[in-house]
Amino acid sequence: MTQRVALVTGAMGGIGTAICQELSRAGYKMVAAYHPQFDNKDQWLQEMTAAGFKAQDFVCVAGDVSLLEDCQRMVAEAEAACGQVDILINNAGITRDRMFAKMEREGWDAVISTNLTSLFNMSKQVSAKMAGRGWGRIINISSVNGVKGQAGQTNYSAAKAGIIGFTKALAAELASKGVTVNAIAPGYVATKMVMAIKPEILQTIVDSVPMKRLAKPEEIGYACAFLANDMSGFTTGATLNINGGLYYQ
Questions:
Q1: Pair type for strands 87-90 and 136-141
Q2: What counts of helices (H) and strands (E) characterise the chain?
Q3: Nearest residue to 90 via CA among 145, 166, 199
């Protein structure tokens, strides 16, 4: 059987890295998409090698997921290097947190474009091809704050809630084509960025989680590997909540 190809956006962040690692362990050829403004490709590949992976198992493509033209180019580069994209994981995201009374349009637009419009930009490049082949997986990374909302994050919560609606609608369109579309809504995850928060603030966050811990990035990666698997072919339009009991839908 031909090795399937998985493309992950926001691949070089904490969650993105864990997703790439788990899917690589599952046997997929990995395409790691990253924003050119944060070009740490060489360092990231060195970290992958140090973690026991082979650098040649990862193809890296740079682009801004908020720009349709960049997404077209990134997918074209991925296809030229690896062949068809079988699995797309829309993981790229940013925050521009501010209370709504003080939020500026620039902060709103940046978050909506990167976190939500990017799903259109990336999925548009692969969904019809997946449907034509009769197999595909699209996995969208939402957030617990897209499910429950969060003060200071009207832009982020709106985008992440939009991801869930996008997932359900596209799943309905592609269900008969052998393509599944699902979302994952993580709670607080122990990425390097989160762990750099002041200890007293971090403890407050941990205390708010019924399980009294943060999610491991690998737990999000494992969920992606589960949804990408052939045995998950009857699961579509779902939102998998991974939040340690922080919020029940």
A1: parallel
A2: 10, 7
A3: 166
Per-residue pLDDT of 94-145, as tens digits, reads: 999 999 999 999 999 999 999 999 999 999 999 999 999 999 999 999 999 9
Q: How far apart are CA 42 and CA 192, in angstroms?
A: 18
- The pLDDT value recorded for residue 38 is 76
CA–CA dist 236, 80 (Å, integer): 29
Q: What digits encode the pLDDT tens for the residues 153-184?
A: 999 999 999 999 999 999 999 999 999 999 99
- Residue 25, φ and ψ in degrees, nearest 5: -60, -30
What mean pLDDT value characterizes the chain?
Answer: 96
- Catalytic residue positions, numbered: 156
Separation CA 245–CA 207 (nearest Å):
12
Whole-number Cα distances in Å, 46 to 12, 23, 55, 56 = 12, 18, 7, 11
CB 39 within 8 A of CB 45: no
Write the pLDDT tens digit of every residue in 4-60: 999 999 999 999 999 999 999 999 999 999 999 877 899 999 999 999 999 999 999
Angle at 136 between CA 131 and CA 139, to 5 degrees: 125
3-state class (DSSP) for residue 203:
helix
* Runs of H (alpha helix) within 26-149: 41-50, 68-82, 105-112, 118-133, 144-148
To the nearest 10 degrees (0 to 180), the angle between helices 217-228 and 14-25 is 50
> How many angstroms separate the CA atoms of 47 and 14, rounded?
12
pLDDT exceeds cutoff 70 at 249 = no
Q: Are 137 and 179 in contact (CB under 8 A)?
A: yes
